[in-house]
TrEMBL record:
Name of the protein in question: PEGA domain-containing protein
Residues of the signal peptide: 1-19
Biased composition (Basic and acidic residues): 160-182
Superkingdom of this protein's organism: Bacteria
Membrane-spanning ranges: 199-222, 265-286
Keywords annotated in UniProt: Membrane, Signal, Transmembrane, Transmembrane helix
Feature: compositional bias, Pro residues: 183-196
């Protein structure tokens, strides 16, 4: 039994020994690839390789190289972040000098606001516990927000200096009840239109009656002239009247023409009387009290 335990211990030790070289070998290969990328001026690729080492082992060497490469690339805020980690893990004088050079080219911004607000600088949200950040030198936009209320202010931060900005949110507006629409005033009924004048009715009736009288008179005279013409023609020739030209037939012809003229006048008078009567009836139907006119206007 004791021999079995010794054998297991030896096997585990040998397995660990076999697994360790690949890890170290991978780290060395990554460092060599990063150094080769720097030599070829591929700074972004080199920084990504060092970042992978940092995420894998949190080695101070990786943080220092990320900071130095970011400084060479002009990304000073990122450079300051990793150089501060580098100095904290490895307090080397050269690293302190590099960190001081980067901070001299940056500015420090402090935002004074309520602790429960969201603070953003150039759209980047800050840590809720610490409203302070390093920024590049120049103009920046500071924003605070809470529950839909916002406030913002531009601020100029010179290199190597510190600036402080205080922002207060606008006061909350009390919720007002929804406005009710004002009641519409009662619509007054429009007065009925005034009845039309009555004189056209009387004129129409009088005209129709007159035309009827004229027509009746003309018709009576035409009938009288017809009878006279027949009697006169029989006196001239009882057999066939004025079928053939005879003395005295000219008078009969004149009387017959008067008959036709009077009959024509009678017919025209009766037609005029009918038209005047119909027009008067329509006027009376549409205009007695205005009701029919109102319906017609709506349509």
């Amino acid at each position: 039994m004791r021999l079995l335990g010794v054998c297991l211990a030896v096997l585990l030790a040998s397995a660990v020994a076999r697994a360790e070289p690949p890890r170290r070998g991978m780290r060395e290969q990554t460092i060599q690839a990063a150094n080769r990328a720097v030599a070829e001026h591929r700074l972004a690729d080199a920084r990504e390789l060092w970042r992978a080492l940092w995420e894998a082992a949190q080695a101070p060497e990786a943080a220092c190289n990320i900071g130095q490469l970011s400084s060479r690339m002009g990304e000073l805020v990122t450079a300051r972040e990793y150089l501060a980690i580098c100095v904290r893990l490895d307090a080397n004088e050269a690293h302190r000098i590099e960190l001081a050079r980067v901070e001299a080219r940056l500015g420090r911004l402090i935002v004074r606001a309520d602790p429960d607000v969201i603070v953003r600088v150039d759209g980047r949200e800050l840590d809720p516990a610490v409203h302070e950040t390093w920024v590049r030198a120049g103009d920046h936009l500071v924003e605070v927000e809470r529950a839909g209320r916002r406030a913002s202010a531009p601020v100029l931060v010179p290199a190597g200096e510190r600036r402080q900005v205080t922002l207060e949110l606008p006061p909350e507006r009390p919720e007002l009840p929804p406005e009710r629409p004002a009641p519409r005033p009662a619509r007054r009924p429009s007065p009925p239109p005034a009845p039309g004048p009555t004189w056209p009715m009387y004129v129409g009736l009088a005209g129709a009656a007159t035309a009827a009288v004229v027509g009746g008179t003309a018709l009576a005279l035409a009938e009288d002239r017809r009878v006279t013409a027949v009697r006169r023609a029989n006196q001239i020739s009882p057999m066939n009247g004025c079928a053939a030209p005879r003395p005295g037939c000219d008078e009969v012809t004149d009387i017959a023409e008067e008959h036709f003229t009077l009959r024509t006048v009678a017919i025209g008078a009766f037609i005029g009387a009918a038209l005047l009567g119909a027009g008067t009836g329509v006027y009376w139907y549409l205009q007695p009290d205005g009701a029919s006119v109102t319906v017609a206007r709506r349509w």
